[in-house]
Amino acid sequence: MKANEVSKMTQLPISTLRFYERKQLIPEQFLSRDANNYRVYDKEVINYLQDIRMLLTLGFTIQELILLINENSHIEKKVLVMEKIQYIQELEAKLEASKTFLKDLLEGKANFQTHCKSKH
């Protein structure tokens, strides 16, 4: 597949694909060159790039992704992933507390008073 096809399928700009290549975020197994030296992507790169996008959404930095891809130490990779899991668990707890507060606000149970609750 050519870069424009990958771009359309992943909704990533071609410039992002090039950036990922420069940062060595796209392993060689997904990228080759044709006779005219154009980039040719393996079809499996689509799923891989979706995973990269998810990891970025989860808060991984580009440097952390480079470490996950290129680091030989499985222990360092595991620690990095476990730290993200801990971060998500903390975020979940904060979101749950926020949701409880907002429900209390609607029911007039919060210290902060507003007219969210109907008076009937």
CATH class of the largest domain: Mainly Alpha
Stretches where pLDDT is under 50 for at least 5 consecutive residues are none
Number of domains: 2
CATH topology of the largest domain: Multidrug-efflux Transporter Regulator, Chain: A, Domain 2
Widest β-sheet, arrangement of strands: 1-2
Helix/strand structural class: mainly alpha
Could you estimate the helical fraction of the residues in percent?
55-70%
* Strands, count: 2
Number of discrete helical segments: 5
The shape, in one word, is elongated
**Averaged pLDDT, please?**
91
Gyration radius (Cα, Å) is 22 Å
- Largest sheet, if any? 2 strands, antiparallel
What letter string, H or E per element, gives the SSE order? HHEEHHH
| Head-to-tail CA distance between termini | 63 Å
Beta-strand residue fraction: 5-15%
The CATH architecture designation of the largest domain is: Orthogonal Bundle
Give the arrangement of secondary structure elements.
Elements: H1 3-10, H2 14-22, E1 31-33, E2 39-41, H3 45-57, H4 62-70, H5 74-106
Antiparallel strand pairs: 1-2
Describe it for me?
- This protein has helices at 3-10, 14-22, 45-57, 62-70, 74-106, and strands at 31-33, 39-41.
- The protein has 120 residues and is mainly α.
- It folds into two domains: 1-58, Multidrug-efflux Transporter Regulator, Chain: A, Domain 2; 71-120, no CATH class.
- A two-stranded antiparallel sheet has the order 1-2.
- The longest helix has 33 residues, at 74-106.
